[in-house]
Amino acid sequence: MRFPRSRDRAVREMYAAGWSLYSDFRTHHLVGKDQLSRDTKHVVGRCVLFLQTDLAYEWPSSFGFKPLLNFLLYLATFGYARRFADKRFELHGDCDVWPFIKRADYERALCEPKYLKGAS
User: Fold this and answer.
1) What's the CA gap between 78 and 81, in Å, rounded?
2) DSSP label at 55?
3) What are the pLDDT tens digits along the chain (120 aa)?
4) Which residues fall within 8 angstroms of residue 93, CB to CB, at 6 or more apart?
5) How far apart are the C-alpha atoms of 49 and 109, rounded to whole Å?
6) The whole model's pTM is what?
7) How many CA atoms lie within 13 A of 79 on its CB side?
8) For residue 61, which of 13, 34, 81, 85 sits 20 to 30 Å off, Cα-Cα?
């Protein structure tokens, strides 16, 4: 899978967040041991819902450093840098509704879905 060439930062950020959901080494179909957890399914659903809105992605970028540099930084600081980055990220909005920044935006999007509209 190639990195998406999108000018939409939300697409790039969601791609980065979902990077661990697939493997370059084997084919799997998200069943059995590869099945997504309930929480992961909710995050994926929120991503799809967010992309249906006209909302801007307001979270800080996760692309501050290259992934290898991030890994080395986290390794050198025994994970402290990761905890620091997570705390900084959490200050910007409601992490429980990521990629939405505000719960009100998420709830409004739930009430106005573009897919399955009129489905029972």
Assistant:
1) 8
2) P
3) 555 677 888 888 888 788 777 777 888 788 888 888 899 999 999 999 999 999 999 988 765 555 666 677 767 887 777 777 777 777 788 989 999 999 999 999 999 877 766 655
4) 58, 59, 100, 101, 102
5) 7
6) 0.73
7) 0
8) 34
